[in-house]
Amino acid sequence: MKNHEIDYKIFGEEMQFVEIELDPHETVVAESGAFMYMRDGIEMHTIFGDGSQQSESSGVFGKLLSAGKRIITGESLFMTAFTHVGQGKSQVAFASPYPGKIIPLDLSNYQGKIVCQKDAFLCAAKGVSIGIEFQRKLGTGLFGGEGFIMQKIEGDGMAFLHAGGHIVEREVTQGQVIKIDTGCIVAYTSGIHFEIEMIKGLKNKIFGGEGFFYARISGQGKVWLQTLPISRLAARIISYAPQTGGSKEEGSLLGGALLGGIGSMLGGEE
Questions:
Q1: Which of 67, 82, 214, 227 has minimal Cβ neighbours within 10 Å of its Cβ?
Q2: Is the pTM of this model over 0.90?
Q3: Tens digits of pLDDT across the chain (270 residues)
Q4: Mind listing the domains of the chain with CATH numbers?
């Protein structure tokens, strides 16, 4: 096993955090801003890229290449490593950035590779490589919800992803097809084929409210889905934000009150 072996425990329901237990000289690597707390004996330091053994063995160029991949996926140039330098066992914890679930993945159970959406990675054992996965087909890249580039997590250790709402794991067998909203796909194994298919029917496209495309999943492996994509959550929050300007704001408040009253009457509320 090339990656550090770590133990963990996940706490919470809607706003979860994961507590990682480290033995002496073990290290966990996390996204900047994910840190919650750590106990005595653990030291924190900032690193380029993901700190994987692949980048370390190739020197400065490897580290710059690893960091450059993170820029392409829209992540920070740096990551944070937490190493246990004391005696016995010690813990460090990382929190989810918005309501949802943390997904623990032992990469050795998935042929050493998971492909996930760009903002899903939370933390991992040192040695796990976080790279990029290009969508080869033009349609998938343009309309797949995550663009041409997704994250590729490789290794044989533990990695932790985070996604919005509730998470469901689906097994895809050979010959089976699942059609999914493009924003609901969190991650999938290397045996999964991810394509984009246009929704049929002009009325469905214009009035269906589900966009023009959905993801077509086939092949053989596992796929993880989320009920609340962060883009959907952000759109709902923006829709409820007050408009600027006195007359517009007053109009929106009045309209909201009228619609709320009509909705209450239609819903049978007094």
A1: 227
A2: no
A3: 678 889 999 999 889 999 999 999 999 999 888 999 999 999 999 887 666 655 555 555 555 555 555 555 555 667 899 999 999 999 999 999 889 999 999 999 999 999 998 889 999 999 998 888 765 454 444 444 444 478 899 999 999 999 999 999 999 999 999 998 888 999 999 999 988 776 655 544 454 445 556 788 999 999 999 999 888 888 888 888 776 554 444 444 444 444 444 444 444 444
A4: 7-232 (3.60.160.10)
CA–CA separation, 270 and 267 (whole Å): 9
User: Distance between CA atoms of 30 and 143, rounded to whole angstroms?
Assistant: 29
What is the Cα–Cα distance from 149 to 235, expressed in whole angstroms? 22
3-state DSSP call for residue 125? strand
Q: Are strands 78-84 and 221-226 parallel, antiparallel or unpaired?
A: unpaired
Backbone torsion region of residue 228, taken as left when φ is above 0, otherwise alpha when ψ lies between -120 and 50, otherwise beta: beta
Using CA atoms, how far residue 58 sits from 53, 64, 68, 247, in Å, is: 9, 10, 15, 62
The angle at the Cα of 70, spanning 8 to 166, to the nearest 5 degrees, equals: 45
Token duo for residue 142: 């343009």
Residues ≥6 apart with Cβ < 8 Å to 259? none
Neighbouring-strand partners of residue 28? 82, 125
Distance CA 130, CA 118 (A): 10
| Cβ count near 8 (within 10 Å) | 18
CA distance 259 to 268: 14
Beta bridge partners of 248: none
